[in-house]
Write a structure and sequence with these properties.
Blueprint: H1 19-32, E1 46-48, E2 57-59, H2 60-67, H3 72-87, H4 89-93, E3 112-117, H5 119-125, E4 130-134, E5 137-145, E6 148-151, H6 154-160, H7 164-179, E7 184-187, E8 193-199, H8 205-214, E9 222-226, E10 231-237, H9 243-259, E11 274-276, E12 285-287, H10 295-301
Antiparallel strand pairs: 1-2, 3-5, 4-5, 5-6, 7-8, 8-10, 9-10, 9-11, 11-12
Length: 304
């Protein structure tokens, strides 16, 4: 009467073409290291590893998101590098044809980057070096190892002689230095404010903008919108700013988000909201649609 039970849906994490070939490559790489995949993949993408591995699980979801926009010729090297990190040097060196891996202990200060993630994805990643920066957005310190982004662990922090605050500061500075060469500014015409849409194909625009924000003169009346890793709106309110100015900024945020068709990874989306973040203040305030404005912003914009 009720028919056959529906088979569990296999997560593909954004893969539309080539999923079966990708998974075959994953199985081959795992088998070379003494691991295997269960018939049904875990929804969070964390694959249990054998006792010989350095880590208990391997984040297949993260690797699939890194591979899905790359050609099949890139899959095996990316999967192998990530598995070598998870299994550890001893197992990696036993794989035929595998060069000595870059281990976490080889991380140096120039590889550190700060990055923002939405709260849902940050919870899945379970980062060690993390803090909330804008509302529920989570800032995480990562290390770039041969083009592969890895979460920074407390062990590496100790080896580098850093505390978390120093790691975040270095990660932001490195991100800002990297983004300087690949950032484009598009003016945003808004009556009562001056500003622009900041664009970058790089991964670390959000952290770079946090570094810039920390250097804004105290009291500068800023409204920001951290939409994605690659899109950030910044407006300085002028003396003639009004509530209509804020409404226009919100409309620009909505239209910009609607026009974005180049961001396919869920991890790259941050926030659709506008934030009130005057220079010299530690934390911004989200400007919820229809919500009460912060007292200093309400005074600046005047009555409705």
């Amino acid at each position: 009467m009720f028919g056959r039970p529906r088979a569990p849906r296999t997560p593909r994490w954004g893969f539309s073409v080539g999923w079966e070939d990708f998974m075959q490559t994953v199985r081959e790489q795992l088998a070379q290291r003494g691991g295997e995949l269960a018939e049904v993949l875990p929804p969070d993408g964390r694959v249990p590893l054998p006792e010989s591995a350095e880590y208990e699980t391997w984040n297949l979801r993260s690797v699939s998101e890194a591979c899905r926009d790359r050609g099949p010729q890139d899959w095996a090297p990316l999967i192998a590098e990530s598995l070598d990190e998870a299994f550890g040097p001893a197992v990696a060196l036993a794989v035929p044809g595998t060069p000595p891996p870059v281990t976490r202990s080889s991380t140096h200060l120039g590889q550190l980057r700060a990055q923002l993630f939405n709260a849902k994805l940050a919870a899945i990643m379970s980062p060690t070096i993390a803090r909330r920066t804008l509302g529920d957005l989570v800032e995480i310190v990562v290390a770039e190892l041969q083009g592969n982004v890895q979460l920074l662990q407390a062990r590496e922090l100790a080896e580098l002689g850093l505390d978390p605050a120093e790691a975040f500061a270095i990660g932001r500075r490195n991100a800002a230095a990297e983004m300087l060469e690949v950032t484009k500014l598009v003016p945003g015409p808004v009556p009562g404010a001056t500003g622009e849409l900041v664009l970058s194909p790089g991964l670390y625009l959000a952290a770079a903008m946090l570094e810039v924000q920390a250097r804004v003169p105290a009291g500068t009346p800023l409204v920001v919108a951290p939409m994605t890793w690659h899109h950030w709106l910044v407006f300085t309110l002028g003396p003639d700013a009004s509530r209509g100015t804020l409404a226009t900024i919100r409309a620009m945020i909505a239209s910009t988000i609607a026009a974005i068709d180049t961001v396919h990874s869920a991890s790259a989306w941050l926030s659709p909201a506008a934030w009130w973040w005057p220079g010299g203040t530690a934390a911004p305030v989200v400007l919820a649609d229809g919500g009460e404005l912060p007292a200093d912003l309400a005074w600046l914009l005047g009555p409705e």
